[in-house]
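Think of the structure tokens as a kind of shorthand, similar to the way a musician reads notation: each symbol stands for something richer, in this case the local conformation of the backbone. In the example below we present two proteins back to back. Begin with the first one, reading the sequence and then the tokens, and try to describe in your own words what changes along the chain.
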Amino acid sequence: MNYYPPSILKLIKSLSRLPGIGEKTAERLAMHILRAPRREAEQLSRSIVEVKDNIKLCSICFGLSDTDICNICSDRTRTSSILCVVEQPADMVAIEKSGAFTGLYHILEGVLSPMDGIGPDNIRIKELISRIAQREIKEVVLATSTNLEGETTAAYIAERIENYPIKVTRIASGVPIGGDLKYVDQVTLKKAMETRHAV
């Protein structure tokens, strides 16, 4: 790629660090940015900096927000007695897009993975227990991925909250074993939410 000037090579290298972006795609994106009007490139640049400056975690559910409490947690029309536990903000967005869930969320920011040194203290399980203890939660929906780590995390949480007077359910059929929620189509995810079952 020595045929590109250093500034373009630097842009291609930066873009290729993004997940799912290979060298060829990074090259196409760099050429698009180069051909785009200056205001478009500036807007892209500003958007990236604004996200880095303004986005924080919701103080209640740990979802992405530009305020202390996110739009979902502050929405009074949501069913506050049902709490859906997911691994990452992208999983919450996937469920929201399905339109199948109108309760609140709790984002763990990971899963249990002893092989990687990730235990209960490394994800937001303590905060989940605290929410269950302080609020009038009637049902906890465990919507972690169906891979080994997700299943282990769901089983661990179910065990930790079994003494609370709440119903504990697990998302049901439709989500493939080993699948990541953020990649599951909306119809399948809707079916999984509607047919969740007790753990």
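Once you have a description of the first chain, move to the second and do the same.
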Amino acid sequence: MERRDSADTEIERVASSLMAGSGGDSSIFRVYKHPVKSVIVQIITQLQHALFPGYFEDSQLSIRAMRYQLCSLLEEILSGLSEQISFALRFSEQFKSAPQETIEREASAIALNFLSKLPVVKEYLDTDIEAAYEGDPSAFSKSEIIISYPGIYTGMIHRLAHELYLLQVPLIPRIMSEHAHSVTGIDVHPGASIGKYFFMDHGTGIVIGETTVIGSYVKIYQGVTLGALSTSGGQKLKNVKRHPTILDHVTIYSGASILGGETVIGENVVIGGNAFVIKSVPEKTKVSVKSPELLYKNGDKSVHKDLEKSDDWFYMI
């Protein structure tokens, strides 16, 4: 009996310590509920169904049945998202001490506003799909791109999360973007602004920071970083332009890093593989890393292959 009492005491001590050590405002943590990640992921799936009717259904539906199902789905999204937003708003300074009724009313208004943005999100996604199809010779069809391309999936989640970010919803946009990150390996902050006809080819390892601005007809390959020069300033850099601006018709090949809030990549620029860019680049410029020297060995015989005059190294996708 004494051993059981000792275990109970230790459990109580550990529980109290864990509660005290939780991140954020512990008083809020104890009283209010956070947005639920599993529910947010479910809402993402529902939104994917809504944005691409007929592509992710278990069975084929008539147009009439699909329209009815879509209306029903949008009602579910509105209800579920309103609840999650109400949880999230409690963690903003503006609504931290607001009455629950005020929180719920604001959450419903934000969710409805978000829902009204879906046709515009769909319009942008359609241009992304077009860019992927035109830019990838291995693409079998646009249906294949919608169903299977990680860049399109991440782009969809980003465009949805960005709308919630603009509506100043805490927590949920980042939950959405980090879900996409965990599934595809593509890390796009919901604050990044991205124009039409955006294509992330292959995608794995792409990082796009919060204050990045990307124009239209931009194509980037795997391993590209659009980042900050330094984050050593921590929270003092909040709301400061830390990430680059990429203008229209830019192509950035694999492994390139473009850093800094004052860095502007002009229109029709091509950035070669593995380039490290921390200064602005004027329009219609090609940027490349100096070509390496490769060494080929055939038995005891060594042959140097200099790619200095070759274009092969420049692209490296």
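Compare your description with these statements about the second chain. The domain at 192-291 is CATH 2.160.10.10 (UDP N-Acetylglucosamine Acyltransferase; domain 1).
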